[in-house]
């Protein structure tokens, strides 16, 4: 064994694109450790099945410490055989004391080790990843609750359309986060399975003990036990990829909303981490670094998911290319989703919300968003057609003259006849035209509380 | 209303790429009908909530028949507003008799109709799609059972490696199909939800009745009821996409295996549909049309899933591009998966398996695949190192001289001393070196039976 | 032959997603005609090479009229052989009069016809597609020229940063459009090549005349002549895909800018097609339908390009899946790019620009964008550090008090000493801090004029 | 400045997936150096324009040495501002001696540095990448020449179809490699351009000197000079991506062919690097490690290209996410293509070709591939229909009885009458039914010689 590689595996773009705890869980050291954990687990699983003495398993497990191996050297030697397991097993065999050395990797093939390690990596990475998504969900829940009645413009096709509340927007974010957390947690619990089949999936070199060793290994590693080898049936990584891709999509949506609300001309929110994203000479400028970085990481997902789905057609009992093609996107997708989640949580936990500006922006259109409601109120008195014509004319006149719709309507005899000043004011109050907004927020909060088992 | 569009919506590439019943479920006529079903359901849902008379709902529902509308004309008019719902609502309003016309589309926005229609489309398409995947799974189960002991070469990196049985290969196919069917069925049952929010998700124009109408509409359409509008939170389409993508990956894997086994030089399987894929002057040639077409359809998935995941960042309360960007890939992904499933079922239901050729191919390497087993048998007598050296030398000598390993081994004194002719023959019999193959097949068959509730 | 299919091939989503002339160029009828044109060209090419009488070629060519064939029926029959050429050739043979019938499709294989037809389709579709991109470029050039000095806020990360002119923004759009037009025109001219190889690429059944027929066919069809068959070397479709993908990216960028500038709170541009995108009761709302639809179409490209690139690994002399997998995305990518181009041209040709609002938005930050420039002006007098501190303090004070930077600066003694009121005013005039904006616009306009051969 | 990061940046999967010289060109150290080269070039470009003293430029350039900077630390600090240029500029400023420190990064924005560095990275990486593709092309040319007449089965849909020569297959590989090399060389020469615009693309802080500095910088860095800033018009990276994607597609095609020909049952080629891919106990097994690894790397391209194309919609003057989203896939795509090219070259330079086995495989079908030719020869005597029927019957009979077609035909009176034994033998000789194979190979070799300027 050569000296270990440098402890720092952090790189030039990692602060922006590899933020949070997930990056370390998919770094080379973590892969090394995961592969070693599988080798150790395999030895223990065989010891439990009576295939080798417990002391041998212990001796093997004792050597399975990533720091004792040189990832760069193993990586270089991997070119001879096409995967890093072969040189790792050689190095591990050299590191094990006594007779146990001969029992290293027994009954397994390289793919067993690497596939099981990948599942371990995913299991471990999903821990902090789900923490960060959950943190973002909690922050969204808090925003939903706090801003339940903070009126703002709802926008369709980036045009103001109808009033909503910021709480409703946050509740929709929350619902999305809850959906992806639920799915990822489900994948983590049920779909990350150990892989053990030997060279061709038959467990031939373990003879009758194969299935028992398989069950023991699943137990040792805390992974699910599959009915049979999935070496060339890649539904498990594909489902993980799909779930991560959906999570990234939700992050991208929320990040997009934040960057749009943070625009200089909109200024409804800003990111409130002191010293970040500022400019010494442009004090109005607070770059939404967290939202931007979350978006950037999340944008990787469609292509990376496509890579993993595009590598599912494994030939026969081991693929001639597609298997190796999974390694990079598998780690990259976990890293990207982890970074997206970490940045989003940071963003939402530090979001400064300007409720006054939200209200002010809503008033930019001087009541136009409420025109529909006035029409509805006039229908009983004027009939649908006349009511519609009247309000439409008033809305156009108000827009053309840059005047409040209330003023123009109040000048109209038919309106005055049926709606007194107070009634008109109430009708034109956006806070009164929110439909089921409050109830919908509550539904999202309840669903969140149900999922997390905590009252909001 | 103009005259209806031509009944045939089948095209030049549909026989190959749009095979099976799913294509019709995602054709324009099906979309029209689904949108009309949502409008009818909406009217009924409001009638049940007391918002309009039942007769009005009935009158609206009576007009909601796709054949009465002209998809091409509606499509053309959609360019004015950016979606086909606006002209459809205008046409439908014109088609409804009496006062009920004024109640068409009440409280809804275009996206409510189109999103709910998309979910209906998915729900309907998944019916036959799951049938075909299930049919393929049944065919795989039958192959697994019938060929439980049909020995063949297991191949890694396209090189013969260890014996397996064709039953094991089919059992792995089966396990993959079962996994994707289970996931798709779950998505169909739980994740396809109605969409109703009005222009900004608040259900404003339905005032307090909004949530009740939402629940009623879900009930009318047989879709799940979401906690709140998911107009810009696209986890549901993304999860559907991920599940379809994984299904296509399994199809591609099986199709790839079939085309490889069907090679002229391998000739272990062929597709047995009379008259298909044949060549009048090349009688040896039976093109695996079904497998090839299944692969071709399945290969669309990674890109189409990427399209849908890449369109998740919807701005604010309605996206300025990403929403519209979903329409084509949503339908195309269902069509592609449906075609892939239909072809695969066809392929597996008509697969001619040549067990003799499988055995003959396995013997091409004249026992080399069993070398590992002989080594293991000699270890007790000779020690690990000597046993390994002996067998390795014999294997090389046999390969170099193009002789059976058995012959070369039998000439070796150390072998003869410890293994008599019968023992050597047994050791070199591939059928005796299958490890847990039978049990693993049974596990896959049991899991299949558990899922489908049917004994295999 | 059955009766022809319906003349209308337009669908429900085509008004939005299949706009412009390209859609018709990739419809089934166009594919039928292109395949027939290849068959006709092949007959003529062989007649020119003396392989068959000119009358036979004429008889074949006379039958090659798409309207005489039934795309749906051919598509259905294609399932027997795996591609539509086989039934088309049968139908064509039946349609040709006399002895010439026996000469139909001579020496060619199905893939020759379909690949050459695909190149014809691309060649034809790129005509109007380039027209639309060119039209968009001309509109951008006009905007660049007209708004050379229309000052507006430059925005980084969606925050106002420095003044630019709308002309510069339009000039950058122009440069992007010119780049993609140049590349697509190059691909069209040099890279769209005829395909002819016979079943295995050897031109075996044409014996010595093969290369001459190949050259003649290229000439007949107006396509490039390749050195040899590219049946399984898919660089040509891949290069086309890459060029279309880049074009879509430029469209998406411009569309994104337009939708952002069209936001209610920004209101710097709007789409000016009367009656489109409007709302009767929301007169302020002018949905940017063209920009939104352009974005939506353009967003398909990454996934579709991935499909085509992912289908490049063709096995041996004809692919078992990847070839068939190209057909749908090939047409879809042309359609999407065509629709994106048509919508973008429409958008830019009808863009209403509000120069006053641009100026007003720039003033939202009350001079902050010019702070950097004042610093530079004070450096000679105060030194870099002191100048920077002074201006930074002033900027912060102005922002905190919501006052113009000019006012705050003017109160500062060190400023008044070195800059009189006029100088300060000039320094704070955004129109004076545009660097090389005018020259850069001119460079883009000149490059455009050079490319198109027309003065701008 | 902290101590430099470890010299080894090689990782666990790099031996397989990051092979060859390109990986180092896209590693963190190379990025650091490229950014520093841009800063140095910028200083020199300004000195040449008279904006700062030459000594200052020299002092800045002297500090621009990657080894003096800590990539990990800079990466970590980048999280504050959203990109690594800000902390790098701070570190560089600290490293420059004297007054020159104040001139570091003058007039530039972070994106100018990173975009120009990316172009430098691409320029540098494409050097060895093109070398490796060229090496692969040379190897393919040698195979094409050497095996001009090595007859083998041409295979369509993985079924034997018609004879070809291995030289023709290699010539098609060659043509594909030549195409992608030509395109990549063109992109390298003409499309990799310097980026300089300042914060908003106006070059404001360089006043009139902006364009001159731009030209000087292009000259200093050996990159093209763009008409104006392309900070948000991403055609250049997109074109590079498209060209790399096409290159990967060709690699994948060749790799696929090699793995198919290397199958145990086909055994027409094997990789001949001693000690690689072997198995001590399976001497027949020579894993095609190079081809498999080439395929694996190449399979990344579709997803990575999709990432880059999907990130083209940059908002306004700097994107809020899409820009940052480019960094990882930009480097990853270069690395993947570089690794694919290096492995492919290795594979083709060491390919052992078994011409005898090719011939033997062709004879598996006992003449059936030649049936078409016999038909043609009998047409003049028997007429088309009768000739076709006769040969078809004979082919079926031969196949059914597992007899050579020649034997069966020779028993037929009509055949004997018109074809003597010698004529029949000649007709059934695959080497005589190769059409224009030789000429087509020569065309490909000539095109290759034309491109490279070397006689083959």
Give me the secondary-structure topology.
4 copies of one chain form a homotetramer.
Chain A: H1 14-17, H2 22-25, H3 28-48, H4 54-63, H5 71-81, H6 85-95, H7 110-146, E1 151-156, E2 159-165, H8 166-191, H9 210-221, H10 235-261, E3 269-271, H11 289-298, H12 301-310, H13 322-349, E4 351-353, H14 355-362, H15 371-382, H16 384-401, H17 405-410, H18 413-418, H19 421-427, H20 437-452
Antiparallel strand pairs in A: 1-2, 3-4
Helix pairs in contact in A: 3-4, 3-7, 3-9, 5-6, 7-8, 7-13, 7-20, 8-10, 8-20, 10-11, 10-12, 10-13, 11-13, 12-13, 15-16
Can you offer a commentary on this structure?
4 copies of one chain form a homotetramer. Chain A is mainly alpha-helical and 456 residues long. Chain A has 2 domains: 14-359, Up-down Bundle (Fumarase C, Chain A, domain 2); 368-427, Fumarase/aspartase (C-terminal domain) (Ribonucleotide Reductase Protein R1, domain 1), CATH 1.10.40.30. Chain A is built from 20 helices and 4 strands. In chain A, the strands form 2 sheets. Chain A has a two-stranded antiparallel sheet. Chain A has a two-stranded antiparallel ribbon with strand order 3-4. In chain A, a hairpin with a 2-residue loop joins strand 1 (151-156) and strand 2 (159-165). The longest helix of chain A has 37 residues, at 110-146. The radius of gyration of chain A is 30 Å and the shape is elongated. The model of chain A is unreliable at 1-7 (pLDDT under 50). At the C-D interface, strand 1, strand 2, helix 8, helix 10 and helix 12 of C face strand 1, strand 2, helix 8, helix 10 and helix 12 of D.
């Amino acid at each position: 064994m050569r000296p270990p590689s440098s402890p720092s595996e952090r790189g030039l773009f990692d602060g922006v694109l590899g933020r949070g705890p997930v990056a370390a869980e998919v770094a080379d050291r973590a892969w090394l450790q995961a592969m070693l954990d599988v080798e150790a687990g395999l030895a223990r699983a065989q010891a439990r099945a009576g295939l080798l003495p417990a002391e041998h398993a212990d001796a093997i497990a004792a050597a399975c410490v990533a720091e004792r191996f040189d990832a760069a050297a193993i990586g270089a030697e991997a070119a001879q055989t096409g995967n890093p397991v072969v040189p790792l097993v050689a190095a591990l065999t050299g590191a094990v004391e006594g007779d146990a050395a001969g029992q290293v990797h027994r009954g397994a093939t390289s793919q067993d080790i690497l596939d099981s390690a990948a599942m371990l990596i995913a299991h471990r990475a999903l821990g902090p990843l789900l923490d960060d998504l959950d943190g973002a969900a909690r922050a969204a829940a808090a925003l939903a609750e706090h801003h339940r009645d903070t009126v703002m413009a709802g926008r369709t096709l980036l045009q103001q359309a109808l009033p909503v509340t910021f709480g409703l927007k946050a509740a929709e974010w929350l619902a999305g986060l809850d959906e992806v957390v639920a799915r990822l947690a489900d994948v983590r619990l049920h779909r990350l399975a150990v892989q053990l089949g030997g060279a061709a999936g038959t467990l031939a070199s373990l003879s009758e003990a194969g299935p028992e060793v398989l069950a023991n290994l699943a137990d040792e590693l805390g992974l699910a036990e599959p009915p049979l080898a999935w070496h060339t049936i890649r539904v498990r990584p594909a489902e993980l990829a799909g779930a991560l891709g959906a999570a990234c999509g939700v992050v991208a949506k929320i990040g997009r909303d934040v960057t749009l609300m943070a625009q200089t001309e909109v200024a409804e929110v800003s990111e409130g981490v002191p010293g970040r994203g500022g400019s010494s000479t442009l004090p109005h400028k607070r770059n939404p670094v967290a939202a931007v970085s979350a978006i950037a990481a999340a944008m990787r997902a469609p292509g990376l998911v496509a890579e993993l789905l595009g590598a599912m057609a494994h030939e026969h009992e081991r693929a001639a290319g597609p298997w190796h093609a999974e390694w990079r996107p598998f780690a990259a997708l976990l890293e990207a989703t982890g970074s997206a989640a970490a940045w989003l949580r940071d963003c939402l936990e530090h979001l400064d919300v300007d409720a006054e500006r939200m209200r002010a922006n809503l008033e930019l259109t001087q009541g136009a968003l409420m025109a529909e409601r006035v029409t509805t109120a006039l229908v009983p008195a004027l009939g649908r057609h006349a009511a519609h014509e009247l309000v439409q004319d008033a809305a156009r006149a108000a827009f053309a003259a840059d005047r409040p719709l209330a003023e123009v309507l109040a000048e109209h005899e038919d309106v005055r006849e049926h709606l007194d000043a107070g009634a008109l004011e109430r009708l034109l109050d956006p806070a009164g035209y929110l439909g089921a907004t409050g109830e919908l927020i509550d539904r999202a909060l309840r669903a969140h509380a149900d999922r997390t088992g905590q009252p909001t």
